[in-house]
Each structure stands twice: as C-alpha cells, then as structure tokens.
Amino acid sequence: MDLKTVAILFIAALYCGCGNGDYRTMKSILPINVTLQEGDVIFRKGTGMASRVVTTADNDGVYSHVGIVVRKGNALMVVHAVPDEHDFDGDVDRVKLDSLDRFYSESYASRGEIMRHGDSIAASMAARKALEVYERGTLFDNDYDDEDTSRLCCTELIKFVYASTGHPLDDVNKHTMKVLNITTNCSFPSDLQRSKYLRTITLF
C-alpha cells in the first residue's frame, strides 16, 4: 500500500465512525420517546477504530459521525455521507438514506445526540435539500475538498444543505490538516455541536 493510500484511509477515518457486526441483528440505541423533526442534526459515536481516530484527532471529541433527519413518505429517516457502509456487493461510498434504527444500531453507535436548528422552516428546507442530494446519487468526498460540493463528507453535507436554505451555519470552524502529502480542510462533528444555530434536544 503506497503512502498516498495510507493518508487517504487515515483522513477517511476522520469523517466516519465505522461499526462492527451486522446491524440487522442489533437493537437501536435511539430512545423510543424521542420526538424528531425534519432538519434535526443527529450525532453518533461509532463503535470501531475509525471512531476512535476521529475523536482522538478532534481533541477527544465525543462524536465521530453526523447526519440529518428527513421525511421520506410517512417515515422520518436520516441522510448521511459515509464510506464503508455498503448496502450490496459493488456498492460505492456515497450519501445514503437510512432508517434511524440502522443509523443508531448498536453495530454503528455507542452514544448519540439530537440537535435542532432554531428556525423550523430553514430546517425543513435543509432536510428537503439533503433528500435531493441523496436522490441524485452524490458520492462520498474522498478528496475532502470543502470547495467542491459535487461530492460530500458527513460534516460537509450538513453545512451544504443549511447553506442552501440561506441560513448557513457560518460559525462552524474548519481545520487544515496535513497527513503525509495530502492537505485537507475539514470540520469535525464537535464544530457543528458548537454552532449557535443548533440546540441540544436530547443526549443518550
């Protein structure tokens, strides 16, 4: 494995807390009494090595992955940009639409947090945009280029869909990171947590 590949894999770990085991045989950690809304920003701490890489790189941040709640038909689901959670043989790293139970399966999540934007109209608009991003088959951003929104990673997705509403999360920090010969500008889940536009609804 060449050095560039090693660097890419390391950076990929900064964006996704991968899980262990088969989510279909494991229960969800999402409390049954939580009331969710479109546009809610939902965080999870993963169960695998990638999650530990993220939280360590983030100065012991709590969460390693983030998504946004959307409405699909009559169901609330989550859109998130994630590598290495493939639905079938030959699947690619992409923006996904998953059930909340899968997102918060014990296979993928050990703890979580729900945050809500103060403007419910902006939140609904952001959720609809996220669904559009999923439906157009947007790929995961393996280059981690914050200036190119044709491909997206998890924190970049959240910032992009809210910016599209005219209500950008403009106080979310970015960090310049250099791993071997690759330089990337990225935001961590903790940077989203600190946004003044979001408030915590519940921790679990």
Protein architecture, described:
It contains six helices and ten strands. The protein has helices at 3-13, 49-57, 100-103, 120-135, 154-163, 189-193; strands at 41-45, 65-72, 75-82, 94-99, 111-117, 139-140, 151-152, 175-179, 182-186, 198-203. The longest helix has 16 residues, at 120-135. It is globular and about 45 Å long.
- Secondary structure tally: strands: 10
Low-confidence stretches: 1-7, 15-20
Which series of helices and strands comes N to C? HEHEEEHEHEEHEEHE
Distance between the termini: 39 Å
Structural class: alpha+beta
Mean pLDDT: 86
Quaternary structure annotation: single chain
Summarize the amount of helix as a percent range: 25-40%
Rounded to an integer in angstroms, the radius of gyration calculated over CA atoms is 16 Å
Order the strands across the largest sheet as they lie in space: 4-3-2-1-5-10
Shape: globular
Largest sheet: 6 strands, antiparallel
Number of helices: 6
Tell me the strand percentage band: 25-35%
